Amino acid sequence: MRSSSHLPRKRFGQHFLHDPRGLARIVEAIAPQPGELLVEIGPGQGALTAPLIARAGRLEAIELDRDLAAELAARFPPYQLTVHCADALDYDFGRFPAGLRLVGNLPYNISTPLLFHVARYAGRVRDMHFMLQLEVVERMVAAPSTPEYGRLSVALQARFAMEKLFSVSKGAFRPPPKVESAVVRLEPLPAILAIDEDMLRRAFSARRKQLRNALPEIDFPAAGIDASLRPENLSPQDYARISAFKRSG
Description:
Elements: E1 16-17, H1 20-30, E2 38-41, H2 49-56, E3 59-63, H3 66-75, E4 81-85, E5 100-105, H4 111-119, E6 125-133, H5 134-140, H6 151-157, E7 160-168, E8 173-174, E9 181-188, H7 197-205, H8 211-214, H9 236-248
Parallel strand pairs: 2-3, 2-5, 3-4, 5-6
Antiparallel strand pairs: 1-8, 6-9, 7-9
């Protein structure tokens, strides 16, 4: 494993994956091939970057930490790695050609807003493979009417088919995080559901209320939805139907 004097920075949520078996499992799950456009978010010290380049030949990376970005740029030649020193939270992934594959051990302190951001590019990606807190992965794949189901579940399930691939222990990281971790795969749906984001946000800010009280401006019976249900009881397809009714009303 490549050594580095870089100290993990708490403000960036840095937890560097160093376990060889965990890294190998992630690379096998991604199964990169030469000629594919891979974009890694938060490459850190390059533990995942190196085996991805070995398999794909080339990689683009988004790294906020200037010191790490400089280390990576010095370590790999330009024909193998292009490092964009930028904040992934506001990065325009639309600048890449369609068919890109997003990968990364996402900074845990910004994982939820980052997922909402990259979800906007669902129509341009082939797939995404991310390491996240186990709790976040469980929310992503949760079914309606379960405690984990929420706004994130609906927003992502409207765009992606998702699968939790495997868990990763705390000891696989330096420093060890306080939470358990997991790797998840996201693949864009053939037809993305159009859901009003503001409506979804307001619905889940009042998730314990009945729909008639959470979103009083909507005529739920006319939309074919039981108004006595709560926001957590509706599927992504239900929210798409309400959004379409709202637009046509």
